[in-house]
Amino acid sequence: VPFPTVPLYSPILTDRMLLTSLTLLGLLGGASGHASLIIPASRNAGDRDFPQFSGGKAPNTPCTCANGYGGPDAPKVGCDMGVRTEGGGGQPCLWWSQGCSIGCPVCATNLTNGKPPTEPILGNPPHTDKTGFRRAYCDNPGLPTLPKYAWTMNIHAVEGSEEDSYRWNPWRAPGTAPVVDACGQAGGKYKETPVGGDSVFTDTPLASMGDMGSVVLPPSKNATKWTAGTSVRVAWGMRYNHGGGYQY
Q: Looking at the whole model, is its pTM more than 0.90?
């Protein structure tokens, strides 16, 4: 999608970050974590009006009222969503790509010969449960390009050493890792693909686990229209931070 040339802002944000009244048009860049646009509401949050997501709650992992933000019962009963009420409910943070290494042609979670992968997508020891841990998902991955001052995780490791466990993750060479879908994949995998972590999704009339956002998500009912050069109210929020980088 073409955008006019405008300044890009890369602020340092916290877990409950809000960006408001910024003069910009921009894109959410490559990321390593679960986050979502809150204002304006994204197409990925179309299920926020379903009863099981009312008040920020969710049957599986909530994008809003998690334990620690609302208390241990928040996923079941909801919480004070604050500004997230406008577009943070539902499952907007559960659309993403994973198993994607820098310089590789496709992600490990992509279809293989037209079929979903059924072998576990693992990292290497001692954390085989972590996708991408000390592992690239192709034979000839790219080389990291990110200067060390911009690292956001495992920052004391020696670059290129065995302890540099995330050197093939997308943030280490921004713009060079593939994605499964430009609008994300529901739950980050197909149902048939074993992947660790929070690879969950509650099926709704809008989408099911493994669906591609660019295929199944309808346009927003009340799409927000911005005029280049004007001041707009926006908000973006983090659910999990895996040490990636974000450009807004």
A: no
pLDDT tens-digit readout, 55-79: 999 998 888 888 878 888 998 999 9
Query: CB–CB of 60/201 below 8 Å?
Result: yes
Three-class secondary structure of residue 90 per DSSP: coil
Long-range contacts, stretch 220-228, CB < 8 angstroms, 24+ apart: 220/40, 220/41, 220/42, 220/43, 220/46, 223/40, 224/40, 226/25, 228/4, 228/6, 228/25
Q: Environment class of residue 100 by beta-carbon count within 10 Å: exposed (0-12), middle (13-18) or buried (19+)?
A: buried
Q: Tokens at residue 238, please?
A: 């983090």
Contact 88, 36 (CB under 8 A): yes
> What's the mean pLDDT in 146-154?
93
Buried-state track 146-167, b at ≥16 Cβ within 10 A, e below 16? beeeebbbeeebeeeeeebbbb
Question: 236 pairs with which residues across the strands?
Answer: 37
Q: Are 179 and 108 in contact, with CB atoms under 8 Å apart?
A: no
* 197-214 pLDDT tens trace: 778 999 999 999 999 999
